[in-house]
Structures are given as C-alpha cells and as structure tokens.
Amino acid sequence: MSQNKRILIAEDEEFIANLYKINLEKHDVTVDVVPEGKAAITSIEQSPPDLLLLDLLMPDTDGFQVLEHIRKQGHTFPVVILTNLSQDIDKKKCQELGAADFFVKSDLSVEELWGKLQQYLL
Amino acid sequence: MPAGDTPIVHPAYHSSMTEQAHGALHRRRHGIVMTIGVVFFLLLAGVSIGVWRYAQQDMYHRAQEKFEREVLNIQQLLQDRLDDHVQVLYNAQGLFIASMLVERSEWSQLVNRLSFKQRFPGISFMAYIERVDATQKTPFQESVRSDLLTYPAFTIYPDEKRDEYFPIKYLEPFTGNEELLGWDLGYEKEAILRRVGDSGELAAAGRIYRGNIQGDYLFILPVYKNGVPVDTVKERRSSLIGFVALGIRPVLLLDEHIVLQRDTHTNFIIELVDENDEILWQRSMPRGLTIADVSGNIVQQVSLTTTGLAWKLKVSGPPDFGLAAAEIKMPQLILLGGMGFSFLIFAVYYLIASSRLHALALAGRMTSELGKFQLAVRGASNHIVITDSEGIILYANPAVEKTTGYSPQEIIGQTSRIWGRQMPPAFYAQLWKTIKENKVPYNGEITNRRKDGTQYDALVHISPILDKGGNLFGFVGIEEDITTRKRLEKTRSEFVSLVSHQLRTPLTAMRLALETLLNGSAGPLSDEQRTMLLRSKEYSVHMSETIFTMLTIAHLEAGRISIGQDTVNLKELFNGLRMEYEPEYLRKKQIISCDCHGDIVLSSDAKLLREVLANVISNAIKYTPDSGTITVKAVKEGAFVHIDVSDTGYGIPRVQQDRVFKKFFRGTNVVKHDTSGTGLGLYLVHSLITLLHGRVTFVSEENRGTTFSIFLPLSPSHHESKQENPDR
Questions:
Q1: Which residue of B224, B301, B376, B445 is surrounded by the most CB atoms within 10 Å?
Q2: Which region holds residue B693: left if phi is over 0, alpha if psi is between -120 and 50, else beta?
Q3: For residue B677, what pLDDT is reported?
C-alpha cells in the first residue's frame, strides 16, 4: 500500500534523521532527509513528497516557516510534526498552520510512529 | 506612590469611631424625640381630661337647670291647681251674697255646675256650715229634717252643750260623706272658725278625720248677712251667718297632674309633705323609693302656700335629669375622642419623627460608608476609573498614574482612548458591544500605551453600572499592569520548553538507536547484548516519562494546561499500557489481570488520563515484589466510572498515609527496593484527577498491598454532579 511512497524528513540532528530513515525504509517507503528548513523547501519545490515529517527547531528556517511556505504554495501533502517541543501553544500553532498531526519524538518508538503514519500514506 | 502611602489602619479606625458616634447620636436624637412626643401627648391628654370635666360639669349643670325648671313647673301646676280649688269657695260664698236664703237645691245646683269630678278632682267635699245659736238648735234640727226627708235623724253632733254650734248643713257630694252632715265643727275647730269669721278671709283650717274623711284639708270662708256692713271685726262678728267649707284631698289633687314617664326618669321621686314633715303624697320611679333611700340625686324643695297653709314639695331626680342618652354620653365621648386624638397625634408625630431620624441615621451611615468606599478606592493598588455611559471618565484613582502615566486630573473628562487604541478597531467594537449593549462585564487582557509611549499589558475588568430599571448608568474599569508578570511567565515557559527539548533530543537519539539495534537493523545481537539493550531501552522510556511528568507538573502549576475532550475506551487504554509495561512485569514474573465490565467509554482528556493510569499501574508494578499480582477493575457507577488498581505490594506505612499525594512523597519502606522514583507520580495523579473533575482515594496495608480507587465523570457534563459523593 505504501509502495513507491516518498517521505521527506526535515531534521537538523543528522543521527536521529538517519535512524528514522533506516527504520522507516524497512516498510518499503523511500525516505529523503534534509538538515534544515531551507533545504526542505528546495526539495519540496523540486519534488513534493507524499508525507513530510517536520522538526520545528531547526537553524535558519524553522518548521513553522516551512509550514507557512507550504500552505502559501498550496501544497496538499500531509505534514506531520515530529519535534521535542511539547507545549500546547506550539501544537496549537502547528494545527493552525495546517499540520496533520503532532508527535513528541521522545515519547514514541519507531514502530509506534510507523503505526501512526500509515494512515497518511494510503 | 501616594496611594500606597495611605495608611490602611487609619480610615478603618476612624470609621469605626464614626460608627459609634453615629450610634450614640442616633440614640440621643431618639430620646429627645420620644420625650417631646410624650410631653406633647400628656399635654393633649390633659386638655382632653379638662374638656371632659368641663363637659361633665356642664352636663350636670344643664341637668340641674332642667330639673329645677321641671320642679318649678310642677310647683306652679300644683299651686295653680290648689288655688283654683280653693277659689271654688268664693263661688259658694257668692251664692250666699246673691240671695238671703240659699236653698239646699240651689247648693246642689251650684256644686253640679262646678262639676267637681272633672274640674276639681282634689275636692273631696264642699259644705255649708251654719252658725246656730244654742237657743236655735232644736228648730234648726227640725228645719233640716223637714228639708231633708231622706235623713230624718239629722242631729247636730257631738251632742254637747255650747253657746253656738257650727254644724254642716249642706254637703256635696253627699254619698260617701254622710257622716259629716250635722257635724259641729265648732267642737274641734272653734278657735279657727272664730278667727276666720273675724278676719273675713279664706283660711285653711287643718286636717279633719271623720268617717271616710281621713286627713283631708279643710278650707273655710265666712258668710255674712246681706246688706250690713262688715268692715270691722265687730260688724263681722255680729253679721256672721256661717261658713262655706271645702275638703281638699292631696292625693286626688296631685295624682291627676303628675305623670311619671318611665322612659325619661330613673330614681325620680316626688313627695308632698305638710308643715310637720308628714308625707301627704308620694310618687316614685321605681315604685317604693323615698328620697332618703337615694343618694347622688338632685333634690329640690319648694313650697306650696295658700291661705296660710305651707306644704312642701320635695322632688328628687337623677344627676343627668332630662338629658338625652347622647347628651349623657357626650363627656365620655369627648374624653375618649380626646385621648384617641392625642394618641393619634402622638403616633403620627412619632412615625414622622422616627422615619426622619431613620433617614438621618441612614444618611449618616451612607456618608460614612461612602467615605470608607472612597478611601478604599483611593487606596487600591489597581487602577480604577468610573465613567459615564459614553465612557467619559468621571473619577480615576491615584493608581491610574502608575499604570498609564497620566494623573487623574489629566484624564478626568477624557476617555480611555488616550492610553488605549493599541488593539485592532474590531476588538474595541466588540468590547463596547459586550459592555454597552449586552450590559455584561468584560474580562480580558488588553495592550495599552503609557503617556511616555511605551506599551504595557493589562488585565482589564470593565463592569457596566446599571440602575434599578436596568438602564446603563456608566462603567467601572479596573486595570492591572501584568507586563512584568507576562514577561516572567514567557521567560519561564521558554526556559522549560528549551530544557525539555534539550533533554529529549539526546533521549530520542538513544531510544532510536537502541530500537534500531534491537530490531536487528545494525546486525545480529547475542542474547546477552539483547538483554542489556532491552534494559537500556526501559531506562530511556522511564526517563522520557519522567520528563513528561515534570513538564506536566510545571504546566499544571502555571495553570497552562488545557483539557482536551477525547473519546477514551478504557479497555483499549489498559491494553496499551499493559503492552507498554510488558517487559517489566514479565521480568518480575507478575500477573496483571484487567477486568473491565463491557466497553467503558468516557469523554475526557486522553493524554492526561493515560498519564494518570500509567503512573498508578507503573507504581503497582514497581512496588510489588516478584510473582505478585496486579488487578485493574473498572465499573460504571451512575455518572462516574470507578477504577480500582490493586496490588499485592509493599503497601504504604500507616503513619505516612496522609502524605501520599504530597509532592516528593516516597514511602520509607520502598526506598530500599527502588531508588529511581521522583516522588512526583502520585502528586501528579492527584492533581490531574482533580483537574479532570474526579477523585482518588486509596486503602493500603503494609506488606499486604494497596488499592487505588479513581472516580472520573463519564462526560464533562457530569462535573456538576461530582459532589454526589462518587465513591459511595
């Protein structure tokens, strides 16, 4: 079902991003990783992914700016926020900017994350 | 600032003194009002009594006058009657003057003509007494006998030898008075007969007792020869031929004319007494009373005199003689009316005076209250303004200067726009709609601008002031400058956010790495390696949970937790938690049983509820020795769900049980088994359940186990009914 789907991960911690990539690719999806917001925007403009896993705190352009850009450009792929910020105010802001879901990285195992992402790759 | 410098003790002390002074003043005024009222009442009452006494005296006086008039009437009537009666004798005398010899038939005619019974009922008889010389006795007797054929035994009696006799020759009415015929009055009344004969005047000759005549009064008038002079005593003596006599019976004289009317007189007594005070005649109402029997009556005595006779008429009547019932009651009515009027005047005066006093006291108290109120507003540290219904500022307290930079004098007469206008116009439109049209208070945060141009955040409360009819009178606005507080809160929030982020990032890396190793993505693992990595993963999960707990508590205490409304299936929640804690309880060879009656679904915050149950269940696992049992039971009870988490663990020492839900609490008996606890778990459980409108209790026995009982509303609409003692 998720074959040929492409997930873009915007995550400044390269080690973490790669661990997500390794574990998610076991489920037959293509995972691309970008280290910050600007690169994410560039990647999206070149080829929009089927799902974007977006970190919020990133150097230069942060996750909120990326979300705003995506909405302005009229992209419709789902964006799931994967961050270690957990305040309600952040969560609320992301919802307002059109994020599909909001997860705290440290609270989820990779398998739990995959369980929750599948609905966006149908 | 000046407002802060105002001593708070001063006005309170001052006002309490003022209140005492008001009380004393009020009591003194009340005393004066009462005294004036009572004096006034007594004066009016005194006047009433005076008028009553005057009216009573006047009444008695009028009664007396009436009585006297009545007595005079009676006297006049009787006197006239008596005189009339006696005058009859002159008629009889006239008969003798007119003719030398008066025949018996002429005498009868005269008497009949006078119709005694009708016109002179008091006359018991009228007689002609002839002067009979001793030598003429026999011829006189024979002449009468021949004249009076029906009375052949006529004789002068008593039979006694005398020079002259004065026998009754003619007598009318004859029937009943027969015994008088021939009676010689000279025998008893010679002296008076001679005196009357000498004087030529009508005279009373005392009472007579003879036969049926018992005590009648006798009046006599001399009769002289015709045609001879009777100017001197001597002439009269020589020419006397006899007397005409009249018997007057007082009973007959009076009865006819005195009528006592039962309706008008009570205790009314009339007595006629003679000169010897012997009662001649008496009438009373009621019958049988005499003047001596009655006291308190008016008594009047008048004389009836005729021809030397002196009768006394004694009349006794009630003090209110002759007055109508209304006249008699008038004095009492005047007294009652006067007293009633006095009391009415007193009552009206007292009511008016006391309501005026009350108003004065109220005004005094209000002035004092207003003073206190003004002091309180002046001294308040919050900025307070009072405006009219258009927002024009009528009053501003000194604290206004601290928040806005404008002095009260600068802003009175202005509107709050001079420090406002920092929010979008739509916001102000909505605000005005709320307070002016909907007339409900507004509460919220507004950004304003000080006189020096800097912005500040204010917590604003604006209340419309409505009169009794619900009409808008104005507004009271209270502002609190929360700029500093907001800045501190923001800093704190950012700090917590940053710390948690910084802690979580390495944790995430560790957790992901461990998971990647464990799922074999980095190559196969030996059993020993796998065991070590599994334990590492457990620690990382615990750490993640601890961070979550601490952040939740931080948010909770800052009041920044928002409660979501999710549909939570308890069974699914338990199963998820059981899976999560599976490595731990399997390692400790514990048995977890889950007993949920049917699918219990509640509307609550899923994340917070999960946090509550995760804490309670992980505690149970952590503080129950190997091979122990943990039982989770859930059952619906009315509008609540009742969840029991029981274990066969170490329990909580009895002496510590009252501190279980306090922050950093750790049982002294469990510290030796587990050193990793923070003492925050049950504190968080208690705080979150309270936030979710639930309740948590526990029963514990050391070394036997603990049961935590959680009661939560099935839906937020049941929050109100949570007071119904959900743990029953």
A1: B224
A2: left
A3: 77
Optimal mutation site among B508, B561, B581, B605, interface A, most CBs of chain A within 10 A: B508
Looking at this protein, which amino acid is placed at residue B281? W
The residue of chain A with its CA nearest to that of B509 is A16
Nearest to A19 among B500, B516, B551 (CB): B516
CB contact under 8 A, A85 and B497: yes
- B389's CB contacts (< 8 A; 6+ apart) are B436, B472, B473, B474, B475
The A residues from 87 to 106 touching B (CB cutoff 8 Å) are: 87-90, 104-106
Handedness of CA B50, B55, B59, B64 (dihedral sign): positive
**Which ipTM did the prediction report?**
0.89
Report the length, in residues, of chain B: 728
- In angstroms, the Cα distances linking B532 to B512, B517, B518, B580 are 15, 11, 10, 18
Q: How far apart are CA B458 and CA B416, in angstroms?
A: 13
Q: Are B602 and B712 in contact (CB under 8 A)?
A: yes
Average pLDDT over residues B319-333: 83
Q: Is the predicted pLDDT of residue B227 greater than 60, yes or no?
A: yes
CB of B513 within 8 Å of a chain A CB? The answer is yes
List CB contacts (< 8 A) between B504 and chain A: 84, 86, 104-106
- Specify the residue for token string 């909405």: A71
Q: Which residues contact A23 (CB under 8 A, 6 or more apart)?
A: A110, A114, B512, B515, B516, B519, B521
Q: Both ends of chain A: CA-CA distance in Å? A: 6
Shortest distance, CA A45 to any CA of chain B (angstroms)? 29
User: Across the interface, which of B505, B521, B560 has its CB nearest the CB of A84?
Assistant: B505
Alpha helix positions (H), B481-639: 483-518, 527-557, 570-580, 582-587, 606-622
Q: Which of A19, A87, A104 sits opposite B512 (nearest CB)?
A: A19
Judged against a pLDDT cut of 90, whether residue B7 lies above it is answered with: no
CA distance B172 to B592: 156
What residues of B are in contact with residue A106 (Cβ under 8 Å)? Answer: 504-505, 507-508, 511, 544, 547
Q: Residue B334: helix, strand or coil by DSSP?
A: helix
CB spacing of B505 vs A19 below 8 angstroms: no
In contact, B691 and B617? CB cutoff 8 Å? no
Q: What is the mean pLDDT of residues B611-640?
A: 92
Residue A55 has pLDDT above 90, yes or no: yes
> To 10 degrees, the CA torsion angle through B285, B289, B290, B293?
-120
Q: Could you tell me the pTM of the whole model?
A: 0.46
Within an 8 Å CB–CB cutoff, is residue B582 touching chain A? no
pLDDT, residue B8, reads 36
Nearest 5°: phi and psi at B103?
A: -75, 155
Given this model, what pLDDT does residue B256 score?
Answer: 58
Range with the largest mean pLDDT of B55-64, B206-215, B269-278: B55-64
- Are A88 and B504 an interchain contact pair (Cβ–Cβ within 8 Å)? no
Percent of chain B exceeding pLDDT 70 equals 93
User: Is A23 in contact with B519 (CB distance < 8 Å)?
Assistant: yes
Q: Which of residues 32-51 of A touch B (CB under 8 A)?
A: none
CB B261, CB B286: distance < 8 Å: no
pLDDT tier at B630, thresholds 50, 70, 90: very high
- Interchain CB contacts (distance < 8 Å): A and B: 69
Query: Which of A16, A23, A86 has its CB closest to that of B551?
Result: A86
Query: Rounded CA gap, B342 and B353, in Å?
Result: 16
Task: Considering only the beta carbons, identify the residue of A13, A23, A86 that sits closest to B500.
Answer: A86
Give the containing element (helix H, strand E) for B304: strand B298-306
Residue type, position B276, single letter: N
